[in-house]
Amino acid sequence: MDKAKAFRGKVLFLFIATSVLIFFITGRTPRTYRSIPRPRGPLNTCPSRVSEQTITPLNNTKHLLVSAYMDQRVNGFDIRIIGIFRRDSIQPLYCFFCCAGQLSTTTPTTILQHTDNFGFPFVTTDVMCQIPQNCNATHVTLLTQPDKVREFNQIWLPIRNQKTNEKQEKKLQFNFTVCISNLFGDYNNVLQFSQTLEMYRLLGVNRVVIYNTSCGPELDRLLQTYSQEGFVEMVPWPIDQHLNPSSGWLFSKSGGDVHYFGQLTTLNECIYRSMDRSRYVMLNDIDEIIMPYQHNDLMSLFNTLQQQHPNTGVFLIENHTFPKKPFEESKKGPLPQWRGVPGFNILEHIYREEPDRNIYHPHKMIVQPRMVEQTSVHDVLKMFGDKFKVPPDVCRIIHSPISTPTQRPLEQLHVDTRLWDFKEELLPSVSKVLRRAGLLS
């Protein structure tokens, strides 16, 4: 019996030792990270663990990393890492690269907090650094100590784009990308969402990027349909698993860790995500349609604007609110009801409020991403070209919110049925996508 026990003990010891050895060799980790099989070769091959998450905690800090991009537009830097940093805990950091399978030396960073934080403890932050000479960098991570490298503990970010070149413009995949941030609170306004996306398709938008914290079940079905056909790119955004996100824009009023579920970070991330593949990027919310009024599509509008303003990289579009009430069906006949579909019909929003231009009035933007370095919600923070405010009779935002704080008298409103100019194509396309998602019989 003692020999049998000793044998079983040896077997158990060998099993545990083998498991530990496999862990350190393969870097097997929880589901948050993807293990990369190590090729045969030198012991310092890399990376062992690559984050597949859109939000990755940075070891030994209170900070979060989002994504890394090649960016050689600013002298002295090659890489821009977008993150969400706690403002009172900024510390020196060092870039550590994987160079086509080989580890690099560390390089110091420059940490750039974005100037718009609206009083919140966490702020969108860019970490800038140089790639060492003769390094074909594929992945990057950050260290708090340059001389304490433990490669098997590092969580690597892939460098998501290639070096820019003069032929880049010819290779762009899209003319217009819309960046929508953020879906949260189980948002489920399916009807408005489908109408807005189909309207953008008619205007010439090629891709819609949506950062999703949570949405309702019917909207999820609709978005899965759009994703399968490639029109929508869904980016998971589990900010609520890492911070206490605010649903407001000002810390003094709403509290929380970070502005509006990390909206400022997602807008910047979307610009860099789109930089090498889209000629223009539109930064707006799902209840807003950037609508040309003298052209039938966005490309015609921007061919004209770019010719008139050749060095302009940021076009500011004025916001105009279209409240839910009143609605007069007699203006241009009845509209379909799409019974049973959650949400409301924005085609019933035909009265426009005129903004008070004597006070601050917000704009949204269409930008050339290669000319923008940092952005906020209503204006850019750093850029390389000019800005231009587009006259509202040329292009304006049709903003159809769920509610408005006050209701103006009818005589202060203007009838604006611009959306109805697209009814013949819009109505059947909305019904088609709702049926395809199983939301309309």
Short summary:
The protein is α+β, with helices and mostly antiparallel strands and 441 residues long.
CATH class of the largest domain: Alpha Beta
Number of helical segments with 4 or more residues: 8
Shape: elongated
| CATH fold title of the largest domain | Spore Coat Polysaccharide Biosynthesis Protein SpsA, Chain A
Based on CA atoms alone, the radius of gyration comes out at 25 Å
Described by its quaternary structure, the protein is single chain
Q: Helical proportion?
A: 10-25%
Low-confidence stretches: 11-43
Can you tell me the number of structural domains?
A: 2
Protein described:
With 441 residues, the chain is α+β, with helices and mostly antiparallel strands. The chain has two domains: 32-158; 168-436, Spore Coat Polysaccharide Biosynthesis Protein SpsA, Chain A (Alpha-Beta Complex). 22% of the residues lie in helices and 29% in strands. It contains eight helices and 23 strands. The chain has helices spanning 2-26, 168-171, 190-203, 217-229, 251-254, 263-274, 298-308, 423-436; strands at residues 33-35, 49-51, 56-57, 64-70, 79-86, 94-99, 102-113, 122-129, 137-143, 157-158, 174-183, 207-212, 232-236, 278-283, 288-292, 312-321, 351-353, 363-367, 372-375, 380-383, 386-390, 395-399, 413-415. The strands form five sheets. Strands 11, 12, 13, 14, 15, 16, 18, 21 and 22 form a nine-stranded mixed beta sheet that branches. Strand 4 and strand 5 form a beta hairpin. Helix 3 crosses helix 8 (423-436). It is elongated. The N and C termini lie far apart (72 Å).
